[in-house]
């Protein structure tokens, strides 16, 4: 009975304990199992990932985009425009305890009430950028195999 009384007192003084508080802090207030796509501050500084955010919101307008309150004003404005154009809900979290280093999450797109269990949620892994342009290949060179004749034969 004393354990129940202590638990009741703790709830009254400190509030109801949160389930997985570190996970919720990392994913801007939601659980990992609900997350569809994440974007870090460093990735948000690159212009290359905004189309991926827009595509994801257009494909899933029922999902909610949560934006870390430490996001730059210009980036915040652009993210709000993307959410509005996709008719998707968004929130901006002003929780000062949220981490905001370059490797921390700036944007989380997640299902609001159900688990979706998306395996790959990082925007860089889900939407890899093809920075390297394919090198022009000569058909003759690509089919050529090395032989000893190449060492002794003058071209």
Automatic annotation (TrEMBL):
Report the source organism.
Ligilactobacillus aviarius
The record, for Pfam families, names:
DUF1694
Name the source's superkingdom.
Bacteria
Q: What SUPFAM superfamilies would the database entry show? A: YueI-like (SSF160515)
Query: Do you know which InterPro entries this protein is assigned to?
Result: DUF1694 (IPR012543), Ribosomal_eL30-like_sf (IPR029064)
Region annotation Disordered: residue ranges? 132-155
UniProt biased composition (Basic and acidic residues): 138-155
The top of its lineage is:
Bacteria, Bacillati, Bacillota, Bacilli, Lactobacillales
Quote the protein name from its UniProt record. DUF1694 domain-containing protein
